[in-house]
Amino acid sequence: MKPFMRAQLERSVQRLSELDFLLSREDIMKDMTQFMALSREHAEVMALVTPYQKWQHLVQDLAAAQTMLQEADPELQAMAQEEIASAEPAILAIESQLQRMLLPKDPDDARNSFLEIRAGTGGDESALFAGICCACTPVIAPTKVGVWKSSANPSVNWVATKRW
Are 87 and 65 in contact (CB under 8 A)? Predict the structure, then answer.
């Protein structure tokens, strides 16, 4: 892991302990707006710190397994090889997850978006394409975004037709 990432994650761990202290104070609990803001920040920082702590634990396990390789016992060496083989991909996966989590957040991520699909100029082909898009969107959207809600009438059949 890059030193910059590690320093940023260590700052997050420190911030989490500060937030724990602040959330336990009585004067902050009385001010609901500040309490809610700190609670949101606590949840965001906790989502970052938890994988980092798991990464630290895996790195320690990997170091212990590498020291076990130095042992003379072949059974311990076999166990260490298995542990190393399972720990290295997990460490790499968590590192890439942490790298994505450290990217700056887009302020528009929390906003709702609306997608309107309709046939434009182009004749029957555009109507068919719009129909395919309407049929595929409810299937694909839940895997790419969190929540998918259609505002269309549920009794309407998704058939593409050309407007005359």
Answer: yes
Whether residue 42 contacts residue 13, with contact meaning beta carbons closer than 8 Å, is answered with: no
Q: What are the tokens at 146?
A: 């969190």
Averaged over successive runs of 10 residues, the pLDDT of the chain (164 residues) comes to 91 95 90 92 94 95 89 84 91 93 81 71 75 73 61 51 44
| Domain boundaries, given as residue ranges, for the chain | 3-101, 112-164
Q: Which CATH architecture has domain 3-101?
A: Up-down Bundle (1.20)
- The predicted-structure confidence for 115-156, as pLDDT tens digits, reads as follows 677 777 767 777 777 777 777 777 766 666 556 566 655 544
Cβ proximity of 49 and 16 under 8 Å = yes
